[in-house]
Structure formats: C-alpha cells, structure tokens
Design brief:
Blueprint: E1 5-7, E2 12-16, E3 26-32, E4 35-39, H1 47-56, E5 64-68, H2 74-77, H3 80-84, E6 91-94, H4 99-103, H5 106-116, H6 118-125, E7 136-138, E8 144-147, E9 150-156, E10 165-169, E11 174-178, H7 207-218, E12 224-227, E13 231-233, H8 236-256, H9 263-280, H10 285-294, H11 296-317
Parallel strand pairs: 4-5, 5-6, 6-7, 11-12
Antiparallel strand pairs: 1-2, 2-3, 3-4, 8-9, 9-10, 10-11, 12-13
Helix pairs in contact: 5-6, 7-8, 8-9, 8-11, 9-10, 9-11
C-alpha cells in the first residue's frame, strides 16, 4: 500500500495513518531548513508509511530532531517506540504525565489488550516498544523547542486527556491540536464548510478543563488547526464556538441520564439524536442517515468516555 499524504504550506505534510480506514487519523511531518519533526505517530503499522514519505521527500532519517505525540492514546503515540528505532538522532517530546508510559508501555499495553483482546489489539495497534529514557524530553507547559530556528511551543491542554498538549507553530500561526480541537472528518464537509465534534474517548474527559484549554488556544488567534482526526481546518472561530457548545451539551446529556439504570444506552441514543439534529441543519435526510452510520464508532467511544466521567463524578461525591 502506498502512503497517502497531503502537503500544506509552511513545510507541513499531513500523513494518513490508515487507522481502520483512510481519512480517520493523521500524523504530521514538519520540515524546516534541513531539519524535521514528526507530530503524532499513529500506530506501529504507520511507521513504514512515514519512512517512505521521508524517502520521497529526500529527508534523511538522521534529520529528524523530534517525535512529538500530543498525548499517549495509541492512535497518537502507539508507533512512537518503533519509529524512534529508525530515527537515530530524534528525541521524544512528551507530556510529564505521558512520559512514564512511553518509557515503560506495559500498562498501556495491558489496558488496551483488556479492552480489545490480544488478537484485535495486535491487528489495530501492532507492537508497542519502550523508549530509552535518555532519549525522552519531558515537556512542561510552555516548553519551547527549536527546529532549525523555528519555534514550537508546548501548550498543556487537558480536557480530552490530562496528558494532552498542543504544539503552537509560529511560522504557520497554527496548532497541532491532537484531539483538543475535536474531530472533523472530510466526509462531513459540505458547501458550508467543515463540521466538528468532540471526541470524549475514555478515560479522562473533563468539560471544564477542556473549555479552559480552548480559551488558551484561541488566545493565540491561530489561523490554522492541524487535527489528528483529520487534517487542517481554518474556520477556527466558528468551529471553536460549535465545539464549545458540543462539549457543554455532551456533559448535559450525560448528567440527564445519570440516574438511569441503562444510562449508557440512553446516553448513546441522546448523543445520536443530538448529532442528527446538528447534521440536519445543512444536510439532507439521506446524508444524515449515511453520516450517522459513518460516525457510529465515534459515538460509541464518546458514550464510553461520558460513562467513565459520570463514574468519576460519583466517586468524588460519595
């Protein structure tokens, strides 16, 4: 299979990680004056695509200075260990909460294997390898990286996960936003522009922290957001307003069903109906049905994340 990628301005390439199917997850190659960085890595299955794109672009593996997962969820960081073995000069840049899981990924592997089963885990994510602690840079909030004179600023952005940060790139006036700026699959675009929604994947959804993180990102007045799911979006102000409203409404939906005996089913049904209402504003009934089916897996993940959030609220109030 040939790699699929999209070249943007400012030396930025969006690489399809081919997670489950095309167009669902991306990582990024950033090239500046003979030096380069990868932001997010996909899974270990993605690594051959990334290396092939380096060859196609005549970027030596030795020129990669940094590998920067936005957080340690496996669709963002699962391939980091395998990738680092191919990049002799690269340092892994990671959130303080995520660093232990990159140095010793056994808990990540055990948790994901419990969820998926060993066979499906290997099929989805491949091999997770440890990274030498000596090659790891623990990036505190506002940590700055220098990529051949190009400044990349690490901005901690809890909300989707406590171990999440975004990377501000001064040259593009853009953020590599991981999951903090939601997901916006290209299949959802229409003549009115992009469509965005949160991803509340288990286990650390925090709506208040997420709103604060969006405020931080918007304070930079960015022109571009480079999403893992999927690609660049530029209608930052409108999409941020829609994402804020969704986060608020997701929390309301979860609380609404807090006392229900079958609350996961009710939350999923309400999230689905909420999505359909949003889609129906600009799309035909046929498109709404098709896109609801397309987003079924994301709705299930979002439901699971909201259930974990409610359980956490219950423990804290007990």
């Amino acid at each position: 299979m040939k790699p699929v990628f999209y070249d943007y301005e400012f030396g930025i390439t969006c690489i399809d990680t081919m997670l489950a199917q095309p167009g669902r997850a991306a990582c990024y190659l950033l090239v500046e004056d003979g030096k380069a960085a990868f932001i997010d890595t996909g899974t270990s299955h993605t690594v051959p695509f990334m290396l092939e794109i380096l060859r196609m672009k005549n970027v030596p593996a030795e020129a990669i200075d940094y590998v920067i997962p936005t957080h340690v969820h496996l669709d963002h960081a699962g391939g980091a260990g395998v990738l680092m073995e191919e990049l002799p000069n690269a340092k892994l840049v990671i959130h303080p909460r995520g660093a232990p899981h990159m140095i010793d990924p056994s808990r990540l592997v055990a948790g994901a294997t419990e969820v998926y089963g060993e066979e499906d885990f290997r099929r989805h994510f491949g091999e997770i390898r440890a990274i030498d602690e000596q090659r790891v840079i623990v990036a505190e909030d506002m940590f700055r990286l220098n990529l051949a004179g190009r400044v990349l600023t690490i901005v901690h952005t809890p909300g989707h996960a406590r171990h999440h940060f975004c990377i501000y790139d001064e040259v593009s006036n853009g953020f590599f936003a991981g999951d903090t700026f939601g997901l916006s699959y290209k299949e959802l675009d229409d003549e009115n522009g992009a469509f965005i929604m949160p991803t509340t994947t288990p286990v650390q959804f925090d709506p208040e922290a997420w709103q604060d993180s969006l405020t931080r990102l918007l304070s930079y007045q960015p022109a571009n957001m480079y999403l893992t799911h999927f690609g660049r979006v530029t209608e930052v102000t409108r999409l941020a307003q829609e994402l804020r409203l969704d986060i608020e409404n997701y929390a309301k939906i979860a609380r609404q069903h807090r006392q229900a005996s079958d609350r996961q089913e009710k939350i999923c049904a309400s999230l689905t109906e909420y999505l359909r209402q949003r889609l129906s504003t600009h799309k035909t009934t046929e498109d709404v049905n098709r896109l609801t089916d397309f987003l079924e897996y994301d709705l299930q993940l979002n439901t699971a994340g909201l259930e974990v959030w409610l359980q956490r609220l219950e423990r804290h109030s007990a």
